[in-house]
Amino acid sequence: MQDAPQQPAGARTELDTALRSGPFHVALRAAIAARGLPLQRVQHHLARRGVRVGVTSLSYWQQGARRPRRPESLRAVRALEEILRLPEESLIRLLAENAAGDPDGRHTAARSYRSLLTASAVLHEVLAGLGVPDDGGVQTLGHHERVRIRPSGTLAGTESQHIVRARRDGVDRFVAVHHGDLGCAPERMAVRALENCRTGRVHRHHAAGLLITELLFDRSLRAGESYLFRYGVEDGTAGVTHEYARMFTSAGGQYSLLVRFDTASLPVRCHRFAQPSAAAPRDARQELPVSERHRSVHLVEPRVRPGIVGIGWDWE
After folding, report:
1. I need a surface site. Which of 83, 119, 132, 221 has the fewest CB within 10 A?
2. 130 with 95, same domain?
3. Which domain of life is it from (predicted)?
4. Predicted confidence (pLDDT) per residue in 190-222, tens digit
5. Which residues form the domain of 245?
6. Could you give the number of structural domains in the chain?
7. What is the rounded distance in angstroms from the CA atom of residue 283 to the CA atom of residue 156?
């Protein structure tokens, strides 16, 4: 049995509009209409990819009566993007934006484009208030980050080691930024200065999910002088997480990211992803091996470029 042909240009125009502005259920309904597929055929395509979702659930999703939340349901949404010939992360992005405004929704999707823009605007405002330039007065030579995931699947915390070089004389601080998952509570997070630094002013922005901390060096640096310091962030304030990412506003040195899971809760698969910007689609995924012995997965970027890079995983 062959699938029905795609619908006329009018349906495609409606779909393009829905993918830009949402909400999720409107975009899903428009995508199914544009492909001309009955829900039974959509279910069939999902089953061929090893994803089992009932016709009733699909109907509820496109009506807005229910929203995909469970890991298996999110797998179905990612498969739907492929089946319905949509840009990667287009439906997931809308899910994340909807969840950000839903106090009862659990975190099951990536950070939304809107949340990243909000965080960027807040950060710019805070840096201006601190009297710190956007580049922080330093060039990053290396950033090595470790992330801990709890048995429950929530983000426990992070630890970062930075190696920086002063761009000018008198640099004596670094502004560290932690962007929590959807639904996080920055007021309950804590920063630990671990090596060659101490905490200064701390700013928390609940709506943007940001914890912004001034880390003070032991002394002022001369232009061209390097400095190494280490700090950690205790989080654990949001729901189950499925990825960790870092945004870079300029080119820099090496970046490494290691995510460590609990023995009792290992993901079934992990992958690297990247985006040139918050508005751009994600690049093709690269599968990453998980070390069962050390319960970890990692990536290394020899030289970072502006954009977003991170690791995502599936729990089942």
Report:
1. 132
2. no
3. Bacteria
4. 999 999 999 999 999 888 889 999 999 999 999
5. 113-314
6. 2
7. 27
